[in-house]
Amino acid sequence: MSTTTSLDRRRFLAVSAGTALAATGLSACAGTAGNSTGGTGSGKTTLTVMTVQNEWPDKKALKAAEEALGMNLNVIIWDPTKLNAMLAAKNPPDVVRGFGATETPYFAARGLMTDLDSYFAKSSVLKASDLDPVNDVWRYDGKKQGAGPRYGMAKDYSQDSMFWYRTDLFEAAKLDAPSATEPISYDEWLDLGKKLVKRRLGKVKVYGLNATGMGVFPQLMGMTASAGGSLFAEDLATVDFSSPEALKALQWYLDYAKADIGPSVSNPNPDGWDGPTYQANRMAMSCNGYWFGGLIGGDPKLAAVSRFAPAPQLGSHRVSSCFGATGFWIPRDAKNKEASWKFFEWYFGGKPAQERAASGWGIPSLTSLRSKMPQTSAFQKQAFQVQEQELPHFSVLSFTPYAQQAALEGVLSKVLPGALKSGTPAGKVADTLNSRMNEQLAQGKELVG
Amino acid sequence: MSTEQITAPGAPSPSGETAARPGPRAGAPTGRGRGSLTTRRAFSFYVFAGPWVLGFLALTAFPLGYALWLSLTNSDGLSNNSRFVGLANYREVLTDPETLSSLARTGVFTAITVPLTLAAGLLLAVLVNQPIRARGLFRTLLYLPAVVPPVGAALTFKLIFDRDSGAANGFLDALNIDGVSWLMDPYARWVLITLTLWGAGNAMIVSLAGLQDVPKELYEAARIDGANTWQTFTRITLPLLSPVLFFQVITGIIAAVQSFLPLLISLDPTPRGVTSVPEGNYLFMIHVFAQYFANGRYGYASAMLWVLFLIIIAITFLVFKLSKGAVFYAVDPEPDKTSRPRTLGGK
Question: What distances in angstroms separate CA A46 from CA A41, A87, A346, B116, B194, one per listed residue?
Fold first, then answer.
């Protein structure tokens, strides 16, 4: 009898396949392990934090954060693709940076977020009574945003339909500056943009206006709300661009893009945001909230010619929402939840939070820190005052749990450029958007149930 | 001849008898020992082949099988309510206008870039194969772009062609010509094609290796026969290089249809960045990425990838069929033992 029969090729391949599948399975099981404490062997917990590159810009800053927390930080650069993959593999980071306003319903509806109510209840640092109302965008009760369990917390926020303008460009165009107390209408805003734009050989050299800082879809949501309507149906499962209010918002955006006075779906800003363009004297008005003042305040010359204005209104409803509320959340399958909460208390209530509040990069998300907002220079005083007057008009606009913002933006960026080129009437554009977005939302609804 | 002489097993012995397999000599290991040798050899085979087999199963076979399963569901990767939908995703792939248009765009991109890259690589190879001074330096410089990782190359192009601060518009400004939005329609596709051609050093190095395999005697003979440069190139160089070029066509097509560069030179390679890829550069793989990560349609995107896989196999098969008679092998890849060896030119 040959001794090779005990290890023939077929059996070897079968064993290999089994081993490979077992290894894959084990890896998945490891990801689903409960509240174990990650460690490095030194006894210190290692917390995996998915955040942006400049959160801790150098090794020194990271080391200081680790010392303050008494744990090691394993930093993963924020990347929604990687996050989706990690969530799908049930091996997510312990703490994840995200946009509360647009992401909470999506992730919460899929049961991917940790309910933080019990943590808030027992915390002596982060008390529910001290939370700014903006933190409600991190709540979702299964039907609407703004109610139900808290799934995350904003690090700071802005009312993102407000806008900044350059007084020097207004003076050069011999135009009156917008009011600091009364919102102008969207039509007036567009008209100002047309007057402020500068062209050379038919090409824009100085933008009159950028009408969307946080994406076109949330902007259209805010505009529709200020006209008295809602882009989403009550159950958040469909959009209706054909309603009079939404159609008015869509028509305005088409007019704006057609006027070619600023970045739009058919002419996106290659920088991805307004900072460099505004700073280079190439944009007269920029639709960004209070956070943008952090950039302006860092440049004294820019600060001297920059002022802040209330959100324009499409109708009579003075609605001034937040489309970001950037902060952190803890995935349901995170391995170190207690350590994650410790991170929360330090980051949102400790020294980092106080420093952020004083920097002018956004409104603090704890009301007790609001007094730290900078009010020294004339620029800071004006911005603070305008922001204070805008706060009472804040409201939570519920986003859908059935699609991610990127998906809806994707439809807009596919449909609108063609419509602009062909001059398709807003009504027909609305029908196309309804059809394509609602198809996506229906697919999402089937999955969420 | 001594019977101690080593004779190939099964070969006729000088005496006309077929030699038996060498048997154990006196004092040599018995049957058990022979078995041990076989086992040791088998064991070695399995030890050396094992890592690859495990890697293949875990990193190729399992993901492929899983993707095939996903393609039959409506999964978004995150929800627990996904269900089996049969071939619905495949039906949608074959009927969705956006998917089909991205596929058509990819076909055009492939049809443009593969021949151009091949021609540029061949031209460069011919040039750096000449006996010129500092030939090594030229070869290195031309090959360098191919060594740069695609992400680095894409970021470099993004900087060069940036509308506001890019060198391309800076150059135009210096000539008092108004700059353009290079990374938007209608220019973006040309930037993409230029970026693809920038990596032609890879094709150059493969063609150069092929060129150096061409026997010099053939050129000498052609010169004696009075052939000019063009005739030498078309009658000797190209036919002898055709297997190398054929290899590049196949691998070039596969790489082009899987191209992900548009997303790398768009604003940011994230799901939100997908929305900023200009229409002209919205290739099939970008659409796949959008379906996976922006729209959360893991099932549909997996079906798209399987369709692409089948398309690549079909194209490869077609190219093999069409290339019959155009590719000349010095040694027949499938030798027919009954016929004489094929000579140059396949005749």
Answer: 10, 19, 16, 51, 45
Contact present, A151 and A138 (Cβ < 8 Å): yes
Task: Say if strands A46-51 and A306-309 run parallel, antiparallel, or are unpaired.
Answer: unpaired
**Beta A46-51 vs A95-99: how paired, if at all?**
parallel
pLDDT string in tens for chain A (449-residue length): 344 444 555 565 555 555 555 544 444 333 333 333 444 456 789 999 999 988 998 999 999 999 999 999 999 999 888 998 899 899 999 999 999 999 999 999 999 999 999 999 999 999 989 999 999 999 999 988 999 999 999 999 999 999 999 999 999 999 999 999 999 999 999 999 999 999 877 778 899 999 998 889 999 999 999 999 999 999 999 999 999 999 999 999 999 999 999 999 888 887 778 999 999 999 999 999 999 999 999 899 999 999 999 999 999 899 999 999 999 999 999 999 999 999 999 999 999 999 999 998 999 999 999 999 999 999 999 999 999 999 999 988 899 999 999 999 999 998 999 999 999 999 999 999 999 999 999 999 999 87
Q: How far apart are CA B90 and CA B98, in angstroms?
A: 14
CA dist A355 and A362 (Å) reads 11
Q: Rounded CA gap, B233 and B121, in Å? A: 15
With b for 16 or more beta-carbon neighbours within 10 A and e for fewer, the A40-71 pattern comes to eeeebbbbbbbbeeebbeeeeeeeebbeebeb
Contact (Cβ atoms closer than 8 angstroms) between residue B19 and residue B8: yes
Q: What is the pTM of this model?
A: 0.82
A28 to chain B, any CB pair closer than 8 A? The answer is no
Min Cα–Cα distance to chain B from A249, Å: 21
Nearest-Cα residue of chain A relative to residue B176 = A201
- Which single residue is written with the structure tokens 């200020």? A226
Q: Are B339 and B332 in contact (CB under 8 A)?
A: no
Residue B137 in tokens? 């330096």
Provide the angle, in degrees to the nearest 10, between the axes of the packed helices B167-174 and B150-160.
Answer: 30
Q: Do B328 and B346 contact (CB within 8 A), yes or no?
A: yes
Distance CA A407, CA A400 (A): 11
CA A335 to each of CA A44, A47, A150, A347, B223: distance values in angstroms, whole numbers, following the listed order: 14, 9, 19, 19, 75
Q: Facing residues of A164 across strands?
A: A286, A308
Q: Mutate which of B30, B62, B180, B295 to test chain A, going by most A C-beta atoms within 10 A? A: B295
H or E element in which residue A165 lies: strand A163-166
CB B50 within 8 A of CB A18: no
CA–CA dist B164, B161 (Å, integer): 9
The DSSP H or E segment spanning A49 is strand A46-51
Provide the phi-psi class of B339: left if phi over 0, else alpha when psi is between -120 and 50, else beta: beta
Quick one: which of B110, B163, B297, B176 has its CA closest to A269? Answer: B163
B contact test, residue of A10, A12, A15, A16 with most B CBs within 10 A: A16
* CA separation for the pair A337, B81 (Å, rounded): 26
DSSP class of residue B9?
T
